[in-house]
Design brief:
heterotrimer; A alpha/beta (430); B alpha+beta (209); C alpha/beta (805); A: 430 residues; alpha/beta; 4-stranded mixed beta sheet; 8 strands; 11% strand; globular; B: 209 residues; alpha+beta; two-stranded antiparallel ribbon; 8 helices
Chain lengths: 430, 209, 805
Amino acid sequence: MTDKILTARMDAHPLDSHTLDRYLNTGGYEALRKAIREMTAEQITEEVKASNMRGRGGAGFPMGVKWGFLAPAEPRYLVVNCDESEPGTFNDRQLAERDPHQLLEGMIIASYALGVNHAFVYIRGEYPKVARRMQSAIDEARAAGYLGKSVIGSEFSLDVTVHMGGGAYICGEETALLNSLEGRRGEPRLKPPFPAVEGLYAKPTIVNNVESIANVPWITTNGGAAYAAIGPERSSGTKMVSISGHINKPGNYEIVLGMTWREFIYDIAGGIPDGKELKAWIPGGASAPWFVPSEHLDTLFTIDDVASNGSMLGAGAVIVMDETTNVVAAAHRLVRFFAHESCGQCTPCREGTSWLEAVLKRILDGNGQPSDVDLLLEISNGISPGLAWPPAMTTICPLGPSAVSPITSITRWFMPELEAMIAGSEVAVG
Amino acid sequence: MTATISHWSPENQERAKDILASYPEKRSAVMPLLYVASLEHEYASEDAMREVADLVEITPIQVKSVASFYTMYKREPVGDYLVSVCTGISCFLRGADDVLEAVEEATGVRSGETTEDGSVSVEHVECIGACGGAPAVQVNYELIEGVTPDKAEALIKWLEDTKPEVVLADEMQQLFGGQQSFDWGPADTMGAIRPVPAFGVFGSAKEGR
Amino acid sequence: MADNTVSITINGVTHEVEAGERLITAAENVGEHIPRFCHHDKLEPVGKCRMCLVEVEGPRGKALMTSCTMPVSDGMVVDTQSDVVKKAQEGILEFLLINHPLDCPVCDKGGECPLQDQAVAYGRGESRFIEEKRTYTKPMPVSDLVLLDRERCVLCDRCVRVADDIAGDPLIEFIERGSHVQINTFPNEPFSSYFSGNTVQACPVGALTSVDYRFKARPWDLESTRSVSLIDAMHSNVEIHTSRGKIVRVYGAENNSVNEGWLSDKDRFAFAAFSSGARVTTPLVRDGDTFNEVSWGEALELVSSKLGSFIGTEVGAIGGAHSTNEEAFALGKFVRSVIRSPHIDAQVGDGIDPHLAAAVVNRARIDDLDSAATILVWGPDIKETLPVLYLRVRKAVRNGATLVVASPYATGLDSIATHVVRYRAGSGAETLRKLGQGDGDHSAVAEALASGPIVALVGRSSLAEDPKLVEAVAAYAGALPDAKVLPLLARGNIFGALDMGLAPNLLPGRVSTEDESAVSELEYAWGPLPVDTGKDTMEMLEALADSDLRALILTGADPVRDCPDPELAARALDTAEFTVAFDAFITDSSARADVILPAAVWGEVEGTATNLEGRVQHLGRAIPPRGQSMSVASAIDSIGRLMGTELNAADWKVINREIAAVAPTYAGLTADFLTFEAGDEGAIAPLESDSQPLVHTPADVSVPVVTDRFTLHLVPSLYDDSVVVRNTEILAPLAGHAAVRMHPKDASSIAVTDGQMVHVGNLELPVVIDPDVVQRSVVLPRNLNETKNLAATGAIRVETVRGDA
């Protein structure tokens, strides 16, 4: 069996992997047939639980367990989160563009298992091609009887609506996404209640990431145990990883977790261009604290090993910085992102992230003050008391603490460079 | 009783009806309808927001509250081509600031501005999910990956000279792009007619050459 | 430990607190104040400002939690003082202040500002923020009444929640994102809400200010007097803020049985009318077409000698609905025992049977709405007449109550109603019958009314409505399962006036004039009472016009403006041989009097008042009467003495004790009881249900069916051409312009289109096509400048509307 689950079809059939014809003649919708004709809703949920698949959206919560929390009230909704916006990630885009039926089949099976008759795909506004591909797939599937009133002749009916975002990173947070889908500002909600109890329109709702749902057909066909058997115990299955920045072979890699970072960066992604030295990398998207070669190259690339080293795997985005990188400028760029994307509803994130950005900008502009290091850390403490990871928060959601990661990373690993920049000496970077 | 906006094109009135019908609750249609209204009014103008408010039966300020939360509803007139240069972290590491500078130089306007003839608006944007193909640029949200400053300059010239009715990602990628995040597969023949994401439901997508 | 309490530990001390309460409230109740900005007791928690962070012990150790969003649970261990908490609060304050202007010295909030206070108590002193502060253009009006200073705003979401959730007017909202977030309105769509002032009061900083208070006073100069508003019969609780003998501001005060702290803008801002130049502040005596100022002595001599010159039954008295209970009682005692006339009425022909108003069976309390499964509103548009009651109904519906609205025209509640029943005035009885039988169209409504608890709000939808229909509706509603009924009259202290016996068929304490034993008991106190049947206002006006009555006492009433037949009222007053008006203004009626006695008004008179649920509350005196104004009771006391009777009406407390003694329903409801026992909640009369003598059972009467072409509905609006609105500078411009609302089919039948002019009576007004007006009816706002003289005589008045060709 191939070690690729999600990208096997697009690799084998680069010219038409997105069409229904190709999907059908490569085993597509067989899992749905099996699910509806041979399995009960409970059995599907059990298989998903048995797969031990941890949600691919970033938080890493086991998908089957999440499904188990769905409250019994009707109607219920499934929302697929394709608001992929974490800087460094672009793998949902590939999965949805290149193999939309795989995602759609996962949605239909999940909806059947969850008792859902109306599902939504929330696609970020900057991904019009994903929306077009998904809509085409939905239209094809409906015409072929996989969607609509009577799915493959069964009692089960399902509508799927494509909803496009309007440009807001925070909508990747599941409750912000639900607000957005309800036609509101994408502000995260207070939890509890969790979406599984009160989600879309205050009804029980499961929000799952694209990659998570795209795995459902395979799990349905092959069983949860087969999935759980792939890779390390608590990082089972394959994982789509995006790698970008100063790297020879940027792109998406569907890998089995468990290798070292050295293997991933150098053997798989081809190492650093032009023979430069690796300075730092972000192991799990812009929110994650950075890793450095002196400490982490031989750390294992698993969810738990990254976590125990004070960072996170997140949505699976690796951003590589070589020796020429001005880490203060890089940190500023990251903090600027979070300040720009802060929804603004809670005080520490709204005021703190933009303050951090202003201080970093001032330092970059040559107007740093010796007290700025303390100030950066104090502001950060006001957002994320204790500066630990996973973070304590004074905020409603983790966006604010995400802006703290670059600060703690540069003060932890590159303090001399920061201090030199504040002092105004044009320190040679690297 | 659902309002209709009688001065909208018959097609857009139909689209509004379909969009409203695709959600269990009307208010959910605010965002898609803002895109349709932005096509009717060339941008998310006050009138556009008022009309969306009528359609979903909320107040205009509730629509503005939503519209202004997101970056893609333009509340000032924009050019025919919105050139969005990604300056997020991965693009930054690969020279995005130089690409932005090249675009600003080629157009003669700064980020956030529109050329005098109303043809091109320039903006720098946060991560657009093309990190593997950094630096990335979008024209009316159609993507080009692996853009260099030279190619960016050529892109602007091409837009101004040829004034394409539909901008196609694959065409622009071939002419001005380089490194891609992943193999895009077969060409997509649909493209954007305005700075509104090209999606059939909105009426913003059109078959290109 | 009671079942509904849980045990929590705060800072090492264990407390029993109410289960389900938010931690911030539970802590407050046991004396642990947690700082906050966005938290507001009456608003849904949003957890936005993060000021109320405390440490709560959980399975993974202590964690920072917002105490405003966290419900208490048994065994919860909380630290509100730890270093971590202090540091977090210090941080939040610093964040809030980095973009906050340092303009406290010129800010209206300075001195009563939670941000200022908490910065002192919890802040770290100086700011380390050296970047440029966020700036906005200085105050922008968000409405005619409210200004917004965005720089001062801490984005706590209180105003948005008040506007959206409480008032149902989502016209102010957050716009933009991140550090650019701000409160704003849509261009040309101001925050026009009857409740906008509540946002000013709720604002925890000086971001929202009212137009009339800006730069007027400093908080440390203010004195505060607790009272209730007499703008309508709800009697919303208020704090009257005075500075140097002037009322400068009215704030809502919390009485959870009544207004829960909310006010209508009329409650809040209309005090300005009483300090306007329009006030009558000296006694006036007619001299031909003008009035001369005279001394009180001269005026009282004249009034007493004139009134003494008629036989008692030749004198009528109209008014008392804007008086205190004590003033109303004094008036009734004077008319019945000194003048010895039975002709007295506090309503002006636009009301309902006084027995129904005073003694409806199973009278509801306002807070019964909170537990109602279904609410039936059949009467006037309470958003216009009793706006704070409208808020209470909104709240109940928000919490899940089913709302049924029956009205011939669109009302403010329609948009949240589960069922709207439209019927044509005149066909109300038929509609009732159908509802009772659950016929066809009405089956869903009948089902909603098939199980309780039900609260029915019942009143007269317009002057076109036969008051008998109100009786029939009350009878129907009272018979519904587990139903309670709240009668809807709106005018100031009308329920107090009726309870004080200001109706031809009532004596003080909800006693029927037919109740012989009660009458003789009162005679024991007052001496012999008139034996004739009393006339109501319309009968008095007719009798005056026919010279069957010869003299009239007006007490704050303006029948020429308010009764259904302005022309009759004017003729009556012109025909009367002598009219004395106790009034604070020259009105269409007092202008026709022979003597005007300047009446002290709300805020200037202490006493009690009774609201629509029968709740008796204390009215505070915040300032002395303006100029030579005097309380009606004091003036009556003097007149009585001049006429040879000691009424003991000069001191409100003395009257109050007499009320408690002679008015059975008010037994025990003394001023002392209200102050020392009842407290701010007030008390519902009677204290013991068996002390009320009158039990009104509404008759299920037949109401005639109308066949004429158009029914004219004159309906009240909050901002009309009343003296109070007209003389409040900031409210006067809000009065609308009259337009004739009619159904599209009717409009086409007379060939008019939207905006075209039509004749209504002798008026020419534009048409507004409105599918929510029931067919064959037209709706006009009552008492606007254009419509003030329009007659709606009789129960059902029909006017033909002709096209303007």
